Structure prediction request, 264 residues.
Amino acid sequence: MLLDRFRLDNKVAIVTGASAGIGRGCALAFAEMGAAVVCAARRPDKLDELAAQIRAMGARVLPVPCDVNVPAQIEQLVAQTVQELGRVDILVNNAGGTPPTAALDLSLKDFETAFHFNVGSAFLLTRLVVPHMLQGGYGAIVNISSALSHMVESAFVAYGTAKAALSHMTRLLAYEFAPRVRVNALAVGATETDALSPFLEAAEGLRQQMVALTPMGRLGTPEDIALAALYLASPASAWVTGKIFEVDGGTVASNWPIKMPTGI
Prediction:
């Protein structure tokens, strides 16, 4: 049956930034499709809540507190996964993000920090898991990029540049690892997560303005992104690699209506 190709039975998936938002959505979707899910994030309390929900679904879960900005913690994440679950088949590099800052107010250190958080950590985790994927005979990596990797908006130079690098790293690694490990990315549009919600609540009318600028007439949900990630992580996309899927409600330009001061 065609739909069976979306199943992840006997697969082990690592999802970073799993305690909330898109990462949480991916972890739940993968568990529902039969995967054992390694949930990595910085907040142990949120991880425990997610782990309890996944166990209630009848799936296997391994919560691992991890800050992807710390290489030693990434190494421990992979080591613990292999030790307890025996393999790694799927990786979702979801942890990342950088607050908007005008270019003239952005220090070189802040710029480099954004690159390390959004790109360097994904590269290190990928480099560590691919040998295990090769051993196990299945490998699918999904990087969570952003619509701002190809759209323009003031004050997002650090975030947008880092996500653009993540998107192209996806293409380069896909070419290098083919045909044994597939690497794809999602260029995600405005999605209601813990990162966006504070802005939506603080600025009156912001939600309505963003919705009005989105052709599909609503903002994204973590489930919207998780379903796309499921496709790219599963055998359903067996002939897809090196691609950046735009999951953004049909936007062709930024739907961020707040014009940040640039100092220009």
